[in-house]
Amino acid sequence: MASYLQVENISKSYGTKVLFDNISFNINEGDKIALIAPNGTGKTSLLSILAGKDSSDRGGEVKFLKDITISFLEQESCFPADESIYEVVQKARRDKNKKSYNKRAADTAEVPEWEEEYRINEILYRLKLENTSNKICELSGGEIKRVAIAAMLITEPDFLIMDEPTNHLDLETIEYLEEMLSRTRCTLLMVTHDRYFLDRICNQILELWEGNLYQYNGNYSYFLEKRDERINNFKAETDRARNLLRTELDWMRRMPCARGTKAKYRIDAFYDLKERASQRISEKNIDINVKVSRLGKKIINCEHVGYVWENPTSSKSGSESYNANWVGIDDFTYKFAPGEKIGIVGKNGVGKSTFLNLLTGDLQPTSGEIERGETVVFGYYRQSGIEFNPNDTVIDAVQKIAETVTLSDGKNVPVTTFLNYFLFPPPTHRIKIEKLSGGEKRRLYLLTVLMKNPNVLILDEPTNDLDILTLNVLEEYLKDFPGSLIIVSHDRFFLDKLADHLFIFEGNGIIKDFVGSYSGYRQYMKDKEAERRAKERELAEKQAKQSGQGKASGNGRQEAGAPKKRKLSYKEQRELEQLEKELETLNEEKAALEEALSSGTLSAEELTASSTRIGEVITLLDEKEMRWLELSDI
Question: 102: number of CA atoms within 13 Å, CB side?
Fold first, then answer.
């Protein structure tokens, strides 16, 4: 495999904070790598250096293979506000064509205009960006993210660098992107908190930890296992060094006046040993240890609740006309129970955040009634976050809410102590909020929500911008949370681990209750789709037989107005029978591959092979189903 990227001795610091120092690594053609690190330790800075958006502090080199195309998907994309969706993607495509043309021989033909238009519309359709004339200024955050992904994919890059590609995407779009990236042969380096996405795509992990870089040849499950081994081995070696240091220290202290005669190599070894024994691994995790206010039996009672927004702009969902009424909730009745954990899923723009605002009283329903229990204390973690004053310091932001926090044992502690629990040690308390990373701001926001001791937690996309290690701790806390929990999330792993049942938002105000996990729901939907296809095939067969019987009746006369059909040839009949067998086999193989890819037990080689194969199977199914329909209609 060709070496696509060589990174040698790059470093980055901000003031006295060292993010990474003289790190080096190599990425080969076909590698699909995830970069994992705690928030604020340099993930985005490293990607920015690789993408040429930033530079290393003290020299170092970043060398890409000559003539490969590179695309960089940033966390927040910035496009001209007055350009349309189509214009943005077309511009990205033409910039790519121009660069490619300049690198090729002068007589190379350009891509025909009809072919360019077809490719653009195909990608926009797959990403559900069908109103291609909509301006960027009219779009939601999720729609802008999809435009950025379309602009990235249309360039057909050899090397993709992606920073949190799943943020603000709905679950269907995440699954499409996951399927596409698992099938493509492009080389990939990405930062993501979505563990299913990471596990099903990546075959290598790079861990940035305390300024050093560690490489693991496997998926996320393999990384967790080997990371624990690395830390345990480090601790064991450090313990051995400390035990040996006691002996060597005793030797160094004996006969001090004769020290000049001691063996120089042993003295040098002593100082090396001393340095090794002083090393530590500081495993820093947030400590969520807050009191939950007492919660009565009455939580939230919804009776025939409806919410209609008259004359919304098209930015509300990207599909309604300007003058149409937007129906967010239609005749919803439900009595929330103490301690239940509900996941909420649905496409962007169908009313999930509106629903949460209705529950908390930030919005009033246009019909029906919502009653809230007297003991309810909401903790509402909004997708948009809190509007921190950028000039405030960390300590200023929390002291505006309270001076003390009540812990789970009933003890009151000052907010300066509570900040330590969320990985904001005293030196960070006077740092201005504008200097924090995106993940650090979200962690601080989470702290401000929990310090109010809520007993009903409403979390709207809580996983965006939080690192995986923080998510693991948050999940463990929420799993044992004694209050009620309502979660809107596009993180399938997060939902599977926490939700007892799901509210499925289908659009036009329809909300359905599904008892089970998100993975269970997706399998249910796949089974329904397979059943629908089977019924379509059965109907087509029945119609074909009836058509044949119709020809036989009437003494061979064609009925007036009926299309003239011919009988299948012997070869075509055999092909049809063979197609039916192949379709059954391919559907079984697809189901088995999906189950294997979801299991998290595959090795890196098996994961790559299975990901490649499922893409081939899906393509074959599409081709063979189309041919089956052609033959069935004859």
Answer: 8
Whether 308 and 346 share a structural domain? yes
Nearest Cα neighbor of 34 from 196, 264, 151, 272 is 196
Question: Does residue 274 contact residue 245 with C-beta atoms inside 8 Å?
Answer: yes
Main-chain dihedrals φ then ψ at residue 311, nearest 5 degrees: 50, 60
Mean pLDDT, residues 82-111 taken together: 69
Whether the Cβ atoms of residue 619 and residue 231 lie closer than 8 Å to each other: no
pLDDT in tens, 511-523: 999 998 998 998 8
Residue 282 lies in a domain: no
Q: Are residues 257 and 193 in the same domain?
A: no
Residue 252 predicted with pLDDT over 70: no
CA 96 to CA 185: how far, in whole Å?
A: 19
Q: Please provide the size of the chain in residues.
A: 634
Regarding whether 609 and 480 lie in a shared domain, the answer is no
Count structural domains, the chain. 4
- Which one-letter DSSP state was computed for residue 434? G
Query: Which domain does 243 fall in, by range?
Result: 232-277
In a domain, 557, yes or no: no
Say yes or no: 218 and 357 in one domain. no
Residue 561 within a domain: no
Which distant-in-sequence residues (6+ apart) come within 8 Å of 304 by Cβ? 331, 332, 333, 367, 368, 369
Q: Check whether 582 has a pLDDT greater than 80.
A: yes
In the structure encoding, which two tokens stand for residue 449, read together? 């929500």
Cα separation of 383 and 174, whole Å? 18
Claim to verify: residue 400 and residue 368 sit in the same structural domain: yes
The owner of tokens 């008892």 is 515
Domain boundary (242, 277, 312) is at 277
DSSP β-bridge partners for residue 488: 344, 460
Of 482, 488, 467, residue with least CA distance to 381: 488
Q: Are residues 273 and 358 in the same domain?
A: no
Q: Name the burial class of residue 527, with classes exposed (0-12), middle (13-18) and buried (19+) by CB atoms within 10 angstroms of its CB.
A: exposed
According to DSSP, residue 111 is labeled P
Q: Does 70 share its domain with 193?
A: yes
| pTM check: above 0.85 | no
Query: Does 558 map to a domain?
Result: no
How much is the mean pLDDT over the chain?
82
Is residue 25 within 8 A of residue 7, CB to CB? The reply is yes
- The DSSP 8-state label assigned to residue 84 in this structure reads B
The Cα–Cα gap between 431 and 427 comes to: 8
CB of 135 closer than 8 Å to CB of 322: no
First-to-final CA distance of the chain:
49
Q: Long-range pairs for 114-118 at CB < 8 Å and ≥24 separation?
A: 116/90
**Does pLDDT of 312 surpass 50?**
no
> Residue 25: beta bridge partners?
7
pLDDT at 495: 93
Render pLDDT for 316-342 as a digit per residue (tens, 0 to 9): 444 433 445 788 899 999 999 999 999
Q: What is the CATH number of the domain that holds 450?
A: 3.40.50.300
